[in-house]
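Re: beginner question about structure tokens

> Can someone show what the tokenized structure looks like for a real chain? I only ever see the sequence side.

Sure, here's an example I had lying around. Input first:
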Amino acid sequence: MGCNSQRHSPRGALAAVALTAASIVGCGGSDGRPELAPVSGTVMLNESPLAVGQIVFQPISGGQPAVGRLSEDGSFTLGTYGDDDGAAVGRHRVRVTSYSTQAGESDAEASGDSLGELLVPERYANFSTSGIEVSVLATGNAPFVIKLEDLPQDDEDDGLAGDDSGDGPNGSLPAGPAPEDANEPSAQE
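And the corresponding structure tokens:
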């Protein structure tokens, strides 16, 4: 017989392959994508559903954002890599946009690549000024309720997070490490 006369059982080889595959997959998958969890909810503007637009959850730790289109009742379901596959588990900054051209309104000034008039206060269209941060849990996410208020800028501190306007442990929070109790999946502005 040759130099390597040991015989390997098929069962042992299969176990080795399975163990190697399990170590490669880990928590986020072999493709390097983060763990995703289903996310849905509703966007309200002045206590009425926002009937058109888009909501984006951007992971604070970086990575691919999750995007959802608003339905007529203000509801949304997020997708990161495909439709409705969810959002990365962890803390996110949120932005909401809604334009007159999405609402089917005729806008004389909307031409070329113009989206028309912004239908939500401008501060909500930017992650850094929306003041909305949420936590996406690995399991058990209740539908998010994102409440937007159409208040004049002069009546607000500065439009940034940390103005004590959020209700509950997952309302508007300052950027940085998430508090240990900030796991309730709803956000308010």
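Each token stands for a local structural state, so reading them left to right follows the chain. The radius of gyration is 22 Å.
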